[in-house]
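Continuing the batch. This is chain 6 of the set; chains 1 through 5 are on the previous pages. Same settings as before, nothing changed between runs. Recording input and output for traceability.
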Amino acid sequence: MDFASLAAQLNTGKILPEAIVILTILVILVGDLIQGRTSSRWVPYASIGGCLAAVGALALQWDTGDPLSFFGEFNSDALSIVFRGIIVLSAAVTVPMSIRYVEQSGTALAEFLAILLTATLGGMFLSGADELVTIFVSLETLSISSYLLTGYMKRDPRSNEAALKYLLIGAASSAIFLYGISLLYGLSGGETRLSAIAQALATTTSDNSIGLVVSLVFVIAGIAFKVAAVPFHQWTPDVYEGSPTPVVAFLSVGSKAAGFALAIRLLVSTFPLVSDEWRFVFTALAILSMVLGNVVALAQTSMKRMLAYSSIGQAGFMMIGLVIGTDAGYASMIFYLMVYLFMNLGGFTCVILFSLRTGTDQISEYAGLYQKDPLLTLCLCLCLLSLGGIPPLAGFFGKLYIFWAGWQAGAYSLVLIGLITSVISIYYYIRVVKMMVVKEPQEMSDSIKNYPALQWNLPGMRPIQVSLVIAVVATSLAGVLSNPLFTLANDAVVKTPLLQASNLELPVASTGASVATTMPVRASENSF
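Output for chain 6:
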């Protein structure tokens, strides 16, 4: 094989965004090695610059054709570009909110950012992985980096406990997932590429159907752990409560997006013979996640635990789009992830600011916050109300699109349960808003009575402020100006051959496609 044909098959330009992230990691590590702690003055900005450069490289790859690279192991199609963009943007927003938090804890900032970008790199590769070995290596890169981030506050017993629980449960989940894909490898006769596995399974006899179902069960268990779906959610509340808050913010968006990208690519491409079975299982997971996540959140007293159960419920909403399997379903799920990125990270930024000033995350300690910090109160209210689905914020239109796509596809029970649990979720979000705004001055909590004066000139506070403003503005405007985002999500689905091929097998595919093209118009009408 000559060099020209080898270069054409490698097609290394498709991993340019990941190469930028790798280069950024190397710059951070070498700079920290040379300068030591003084590197903290420029390392965060280098990290943000690398993430934004990766987003620019992803934008340049849109509609370039020939998405396969490295002999088919990596697929840079429109679907992977969108998911990789969500993951790297979540890292870019997480970096500025981490600076003050990490430095105040007395730990090294450069190491933290290097591990964070390594997790980002794993999630990006996982979103485009089209081969079993690549999938597992990418998944473990994301998982191991997440374990390290969870236990990064070595002097905090809660962080150590959270990391240990996450490691043990995550290792079991990885082993289960590995067993599932090893069965795929055996059933397909030794194939590792997803397309080759699908072709091999299509030609096998029904004698292998039991093995295929067993493989499906193990694969779904691994995916459900990554997206924190019930009953594989046990790690979520403890990890969210004990981990550093910036880590929780990244895991709630970046890790979840990578899990859904893996679910779409792996289930749709390799399990078409048992599509009814995996859709039934995900229907049950969606119902359990929506019900348990939103109901249990009502009883929480810690803000981080409440947001943990909220994220479980939000995963249930997103799974509706995966279950119905139409163009509109996939597009609405991608759109919801886009807006969830900003409203969830904005909420966690507010929690970080409050904990930096008071040292607590108890909901009762937010009582009377409006009297001392109106800006933080307004930002947190907007983010929580958007998570609850209050119009005209972005979360309302995200849920509207998902429920509308589900209703058009005939998933009436899922939509009704989603509507009921969404109303339940509004209660615990409104409870926090009421705690901050309605309380009289004499009902202030002790933390608010001793609330320190605002000092934005402290090191690391301005980046938090910038991160908060970006998240809140995006949350507010993404609802009113939702058409561009939904058009992007819809184009990602329409331009992905894998999803179009799968939709040909669904009787509602044509209906879903028409819904996908008309829903942005509906968004415009509702916005005004």
